[in-house]
Amino acid sequence: MSSQDQYWVDYYEGLSKEAPQWLDYSNERVHLQTFGAVLEAADRLVGRRVLDVGCGRGLLCRMAKVLGAASATGVDVVPAEMAKLATAHPDITWRAGDVGDALFRAELGRFDAVYALEVMQYLPVPKTLEWLWEMLDPTGVFIAVFPYENCPIVKRTVSRFEGRYIPPSIDAIAAWASATPDLESFSLRGMRFQEDQRIAPYELTGWTRDATWADPPNRIQLVMKKASLAG
Q1: Is the pTM of this model over 0.70?
Q2: More confident residue, 25 or 35
């Protein structure tokens, strides 16, 4: 394991022992609105096989099961947290491991929906897109949320972690997507903190491929749909 990977394993092992349910999200409302946005973007979950990479306390997998997913698998780097979730929610598969490991990915299998929320700043891009894309069956959907590299708040976080926290480049993602032959579509939208957050913390921009905003959002939501075999 690289020193970069070990740093984040240690960081989240410590955080999981004392942080609230939403871990390193700003607060519970940011956590829940993010989950609402990504569940809506999946189109449907009934009868589908769902994977959540970087599942944390496992709430997204539990929501997916309630919404009718045929199966849900949560993956994270903290073995103790995965063991607790396996005991509390045995109807869901919980695995501790590294999605950069090809053998581990093969053990996990294939899915109809893959989520990667707040993990792409810790993993190599576009390599991570290749890893997770190959785990999707035809017509499957990949959904990610990650910090926007040009947001001033994000830039302060990058500085605080001294180069270990690396928001992915939207240009690199777009270039990778454009060269992917089995891609049906991809789109982005921004999640920008509102001045008045009494109803919802985020204002969501429209879906676009042209990620240029005069007022930079805090987070980016990415959705990529895989083509059918016939396509």
Answers
A1: yes
A2: 35
- Tell me which DSSP letter residue 47 carries: T
| CATH number attached to the domain at 3-226 | 3.40.50.150
Residue 119 CA to residue 196 CA, distance in Å, equals 28
Residue 150's region, left for phi above 0, alpha for psi from -120 to 50, else beta, is alpha
For residue 6, the tally of other CB atoms under 10 A from its CB is: 11
Residues 204 and 37 sit within 8 Å (Cβ to Cβ): yes
**Phi, psi of 8, rounded to the nearest 5 degrees:** -75, -30
Task: Specify the pLDDT at position 1.
Answer: 67
Residue ranges per structural domain of the chain: 3-226
- Rounded Cα gap, residues 188 and 221, in angstroms: 6
pLDDT tens readout for residues 87-146 = 999 999 999 999 999 999 999 999 999 999 999 999 999 999 999 999 999 999 999 999
Please give the angle made by the CA atoms of 131, 134 and 139, to the nearest 5 degrees.
Answer: 135
Give the C-alpha distances (Å, rounded to integers) separating 169 from 142, 150, 173. 17, 10, 6
Taking Cα atoms as reference points, which of 21, 48, 20, 60 lies closest to residue 144?
60
What's the rounded Cα separation, in Å, for the pair 37 and 168?
20
Q: Which residues contact 178 (CB under 8 A, 6 or more apart)?
A: none
